[in-house]
Write a structure and sequence with these properties.
Blueprint lengths: L2 H7 L29 H9 L7 E4 L6 H8 L5 E6 L2 H12 L1 H10 L4 H9 L5 H14 L27 H14 L3 E5 L2 H8 L7 E5 L11 H4 L7 H10 L3 E7 L2 H10 L2 E8 L5 E8 L9
Helix pairs in contact: 2-3, 4-7, 5-8, 11-12
Bound molecules: S-adenosylmethionine.
S-adenosylmethionine (SAM) binds next to β2 and α9.
Length: 297
Amino acid sequence: MTTIAIMDEIPISSIPAVNVASVPQRSPLRYPGGKTWLIPHVRHWLKNAEPPTTTLVEPFAGGATVTLTAVMEGFVARAIMAELDRDVAAFWHTALQNTEELIKQVEHFRPTRFGVTMLASRHPRTLLEHGFRTLVMNRTRRGGILAPGAALARDGENGKGVASRWYPETLVNRLVAISEFRQQISFCETDGLLLLETLLPNMGKETAVFADPPYTAGGKRAGSRLYAHNALDHGRLFQMLADSNVNFLMTYDCAPEILSLVRQHGFEAVQVVMKNTHHRRVPEVVITRQPLFTEAE
Ligand SMILES: C[S@@+](CC[C@H](N)C(=O)[O-])C[C@H]1O[C@@H](n2cnc3c(N)ncnc32)[C@H](O)[C@@H]1O
């Protein structure tokens, strides 16, 4: 079945994708495949959770927009997130444990092409250096891509080149906000599937799992170019969630393999049509255990 044929079968969500500018941006990372557009769905999901959610688990954190929103907007008392990428993990360790030092580095750094290239070529000696390097690379490479081979931004916004997405004041504000909530957020540098395997047997409906896994098959997201870690056993993820009692929400590119997993487990899927950076319409699917985003619910 083609992607077009699948799209005809999946109902359109009753909540439209929002313009990202209308939602508070909370992550310091510009993340390829970031989920700001999904935030209204996440708010609806957590607001209507019964029993209310106490813990959010985000096994494929990336920029962790959903974790940050859920904690900062008071939807959950605590969150546990995981990420396998060493660079991204170094950023989260530093942002959560050594925020003040990271803020100082952000305030003092002036991104030039030479400075950024030097930073990229040096092996970081400390976790702080590593976390800071990740932030700089993320904000100066084209599209925020950290995977090997990603190029530096050329002209960028207003012809400012590598510095075009380096907004020290904004980054500091976001890091300060994170530091205010850091007691509520736990970060693990691990495989998200392993984390779920460990946690799920002991968790019930008051736990919410938000899963935005890397996806490579046929999707526009081109996961293999965007993320260093992009191979995942999606069947295993679906099976673990099906066997558990937790409340979950997953997002995926619209693809035949995914629809067949949705059907196999009797899950619910809606499609959210959004514009990507090239203003083409790219559908994503939002998958839950119960219907949540259809008018008839
Ligand atoms: C689609 S992105 C998540 C984007 C995120 N939702 C956001 O708002 O920025 C998927 C992330 O999962 C990470 N990843 C890939 N395989 C993983 C694994 N087995 N365990 C944990 N993280 C993994 C990738 O490095 C990438 O950061």
